[in-house]
Specification:
Mean pLDDT: 87
Distance between the termini: 17 Å
CATH topology of the largest domain: Methylamine Dehydrogenase, Chain H
Largest sheet: 5 strands, antiparallel
Radius of gyration: 20 Å
GO molecular function, one term: metal ion binding
CATH class of the largest domain: Mainly Beta
Number of strands: 29
Pfam family, one: Cytochrom_C
Number of helices: 5
Shape: globular
Strand content: 35-45%
Number of domains: 2
Helix content: under 10%
Organism: Bradyrhizobium valentinum
Keywords: Electron transport, Heme, Iron, Metal-binding, Repeat, Signal, Transport, WD repeat
InterPro entries: Cyt_c-like_dom, Cyt_c-like_dom_sf, Cyt_c_1A/1B, WD40/YVTN_repeat-like_dom_sf, WD40_PAC1, WD40_repeat_dom_sf, WD40_rpt
Length: 425
């Protein structure tokens, strides 16, 4: 059940008639938009990054280097970009070149977020190895910030460049001064945190596993919260003019929040699959989202409507046949990455068809990590339940599956019973 990227050829759609961008062969995990709004970079579970022209709605270059999912991207200016992935590496690219100019190595677990300092000299990376690293883009050893006790999921520089903000599963926000004192300010939070953004006025917004967006002052004081939805917030962005916050969730919707009023103004509803990434264009009205259906969509954040009406079309709910089944609803967070039937292919994760009685990392046609192949686990109702009780990182170390736990014994039992019915060959 490891969640790892599948290496496949990418069909690139260049038709300018539609506002969606199709090209990735897996969920779109990361987005970054240029300062002039003319281009974007996206990273995907398919192990590639794509450079897009937003004026032509066309792919300009596919970047192939990483051996696993590309979880984070950043535009560095002057025709350069950075990509980082589940392979723990950061690649620095110049547009048009087919190989990276430089590769930064040091993280020992997936990198899941990148941020560029306001002066463009430093790249920050957040990793599931519990560290943040600050990389001088001109070269030199990174500074390692290692006080988090769980996976670090998000990182952002403050607008004045004087501090770095990181968020983690360890229920904390840490504000790191970049000069003078080296000890971070630790802000305890009520929930694990998945994402962070910093506004031009110094305010910090963080996205929680409880579906809320929390606001902090530049000094770390709590300054309000807004419920974005019932599912975890996994990506967050503040509009360039500071008026709006977009919070994307695992449930497939994007909450648009009035930052000053601290109110939910509208919800963007797509196909219902997880939205992994969100970014504003410079006009502060147009929003790009990257989803589990492999498509980048363009939205009018002021009205909540897709720019093109075809954006909301979908092939249908893959769990429609199980309507009313509580176990199927628990499984819904997994459906973007795993199929259930023998006639359905592997996705970002292997198919679960015939999983019970099968040894871990043996599903046909899937490229599992060596760490998983060494584990002595056979999938049974008991082992699947244990996976979600203690979490993938503890039960299957070496997995690329996002950390997720199901605390309710009843929910775990419902999930297992559903899988027993739905995955029979």
């Amino acid at each position: 059940m490891a969640l790892a990227a599948v290496l496949i050829a990418l069909p690139i759609v260049t038709t300018a008639a539609f506002a969606q961008l199709r090209g990735h062969g897996g969920p779109v995990r990361a987005l970054a938009i240029s300062a002039d709004g003319q281009s974007a970079i996206s990273g995907s579970f398919d192990s590639t990054a794509i450079r897009w022209s937003l004026t032509r709605n066309a792919a300009e270059q596919v970047l192939r280097f990483h051996s696993d999912a590309v979880n984070a991207v950043a535009l560095l200016g002057q025709g350069r970009t950075a990509t980082a992935g589940a392979d723990g590496r950061i690649a620095i690219w110049t547009f048009g070149k087919t190989e990276p100019d430089a590769v930064f190595e040091g993280h020992t677990a997936p990198i899941v977020a990148l941020a560029v300092s306001p002066d463009g000299t430093t790249l920050a990376s957040a990793s599931w190895d519990h560290t943040v690293r600050l990389w001088p883009l001109a070269g030199g050893a990174p500074r390692v910030l290692g006080e988090h006790t769980q996976n670090v999921n998000g990182v952002a520089f403050t607008a004045d460049g004087r501090a770095l903000v990181s968020v983690s599963y360890d229920l904390s926000v840490r504000i790191w001064p970049l000069s003078g004192a080296q000890t971070p300010m630790v802000v305890p939070m009520p929930t694990p945190l998945n994402a962070v953004a910093a506004g031009a006025d110094g305010e910090i917004a963080v996205g929680g596993a409880d579906g809320k967006v929390y606001f902090l002052t530049a000094g770390g004081a709590r300054a309000g919260e807004v419920a974005a939805g019932p599912r975890p917030v996994i990506s967050i962005a503040i509009s360039p003019d500071g008026a709006l916050v977009a919070a994307a969730g695992i449930g497939g919707a994007v909450a648009v929040i009035d930052r000053k009023a601290r109110t939910l103004t509208r919800t963007l509803v797509g196909p219902g699959l997880p939205v992994w990434s969100v970014a504003f264009l410079p006009d502060s009205r147009t929003l790009l989202t990257g989803g589990a259906d492999n498509i980048i969509r363009r939205w009018n954040a002021a009205t909540g409507e897709p720019v093109d009406p075809l954006l909301v079309e979908t092939a249908g709910d893959p769990l429609a046949a199980y309507a009313g089944d509580h176990g199927a609803e628990v499984f819904r967070a997994c459906v973007a990455c795993h199929t259930l039937a023998t006639d359905q292919a592997n996705r970002a994760g292997p198919t679960l068809a015939g999983i019970f009685g099968r040894r871990i990392a043996t599903a046909a046609g899937y490229n599992f990590s060596e760490a998983l192949k060494r584990l002595d686990i056979v999938w049974t109702p008991e082992t699947v339940s244990k996976l979600f009780e203690v979490g993938p990182q503890a039960y299957t170390p070496g997995t690329k599956m996002p950390e997720q736990r199901i605390g309710s014994e009843q929910d775990r039992a419902a999930l297992v019973q559903f899988l027993e019915r739905a995955t029979r060959k």
